[in-house]
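input
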Amino acid sequence: MGDSVTVILIDDHEVVREGVRAFLSTRDDIDVVGEADGETTGVALAAGVTPDVALVDLIMGDGDGVTTTRRIRQVSPRTQVVVLTSFDDRNWVIPALRAGALSYVLKDVDGTELADVVRRAAIGEAVLHPRVAGHVVRRLRHEATEPSIADLTERELEVLRIIAQGANNAQIAAELVVSEKTVKGHVSNVLAKLQVEDRTQAAVFAWRTGVVHEPR
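output
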């Protein structure tokens, strides 16, 4: 089946993976070539098999789908990422798309539609759930093209302030009394929402916009 669309599944719920695999495997033109239960194993799998499409959940035990998407696109640029999740909140949608996701669909999608999404992703065609598309349209219409601290949640703003003080993830985790994995997800969202490449640029943004006062 050389012309088959190759797909990997990344979701920490085994029952979800089993269900998706069972359905997609009934399609002669789709070949599920691997599964992973989290970010680390998922990125390694993508690097190893370089599939046409990766179906990625957003919330996983060892990471988040935004970071996973970004890393997959780095290790396997040919792989199109389709976010398959239960969450349509704009705080997830925009960062996921900025991280490189091509399509964003919800888990209430039926099997036939999902198979079509996979086929379309393989040829570079995007599909957005209607509610997700609504977030994108509103973003384009009502929000300034320049990033704004208004895009950040209260916790992400806290993380930005601490980043601007030069703290690393372990120090941020200690100050906020959360895990480093949680901090990693917040930092990824901050970078994506502010449209910056690294922590230094995020710190400069914080100083420039008055979130914190630039050190002398």
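quick obs: Residues 162 and 172 are 7 Å apart (CA to CA).
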